[in-house]
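Justification of computing resources. Each target in the renewal requires a structure prediction run like the one illustrated here; the chain below, 108 residues long, is used simply to show the kind of job we budget for.
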Amino acid sequence: MSDDLDQTDGAGGKHAAARQLAEQALRAQAAGDEEEAERLFADAERADPHAVAAVLDEHRDDPAPAAVEAPQDDAELAAESRTVQAGADAPSRAGVSGRGSGADTQGT
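Resulting structure tokens:
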């Protein structure tokens, strides 16, 4: 398929252009360019949502793009995780937020 979009005004032209955009979006997604994939899918949806659905249906059995590799050890996991310090006050008691949710005063 050519990378040039069909610039005709007919319904068939819009359908073909939307299909081509959806195919390009799938290629961008497979390459890991989620921002470009989102933009292309949005353009294709505006042109012809039925064409996008048809392309996605045709590719539903394709293998999913590789997921981001999970951390392999504690150091990698710690670098991606939030640190909780023992003995730290809840945000409402540490002066970080307002009165809090009220959970501290329930049952009193």
